[in-house]
Here is the input.
Amino acid sequence: MRVARPSFPDELAPLVRRGAGPAHGLLAGGLRRSYGDSCINDGGALIEMIGLDRFILFDRATGLLEAEAGVSLADILKLAIPAGFFLPVTPGTKFATLGGAIANDVHGKNHHRAGTFGRWIRSLSLLRSDGSESVVDDDDTSGLFAATVGGLGLTGVITRATLQLVPIISSNMAVQTIPFGNLQEFFALSAESDSSHDYTVAWVDCLAKGDRLGRGIFTRARHVSDDDLRVKPRGGPSVPFDAPGFLLNRLSIAAFNEAYFRLAGRARQATVSYDPFFYPLDAIGGWNRLYGPRGFYQYQSVVPPAVAAEATAEMLRTIAAAGQGSFLAVLKTFGDIASPGLLSFPRQGTTLALDFANRGGPTLWLLDKLDAIVREAGGRLYPAKDGRLPPAMFRAGYPALDLFTTHLDPGMSSTFWRRMTS
Here is the structure.
């Protein structure tokens, strides 16, 4: 893969013309926090956008921010928080770029209130491989805005964007933690909390069975009003080497889940900084090395509300029976706010995200089983987090795919896209 690292906007157009020519085309990339192959272009060209990270305009009265696509969410927070603003939607890492957040139409813990990141983009500039550059806004009727938001970088290179930030009085969070004993209790807590709290999320013990199926720890939060507008990024330890693969087994994961449920699952309320609440893994450098040299598969699905309880229970039963549990199993309900992108992942329903240590055939067998449950439920998987999404599953889960392809830039491609369309 050929990689270019521009530092100035006028370098982009020549790079796009050169990179878009070969068979495997061109892709723009950011900080590469996607777990799958949607940010990879094997055999082709990649423009690394992180050198194009300048702020262009910030209206401190309205919170409207215009910036180059390579600026990170971390840098946006450094600018926005002291001025009394925050990201309207944020994923679980602040080490993602503005362009990447748009291309994946990321979601966060407040989907039931705010929807996806793309809903807060007021306009974006798109450089196409034919040399044309246009500005499309959220009122665009051509369909190009809808194709670009969540479009995995396949409609052109996003060069800059205008984002609407949201006002805050404090960067601290009032966080309430509530243990729940089974999946039914989760859904009751979620329904109650969505109407009273801005942010909700749950950790679930995916190895629990029987009456304890789906037990976990529910967290709900809102911004407080203590006038503390300090930026508080945390430092932390780094994992210095790959953990031996044998450490991650059914017994060790079950022991961890049991201990975590008992120790962290006490009902409590606390005021904490935004950083540990939104970005717990950012404090651990190289945390992925805990999964060993073979790495891991992330699996995130969403299933519709009518079948969410049944489908989620079946997924958890399948995982528990396979004995391939996950330390990081996150359960949340998405609200009914429509996502703006044709290929946006979130939809109303329940989303379950898990990390599985890569054990080869047995892990792929389990993921195939989960695929069958999700597809039967009429759900979909998240391309940004899945490196083995089957093409048929992708087509079934994204009914606007044919419309999206009419807006493809013929010079853009990725390993993911070729895998889906070969």
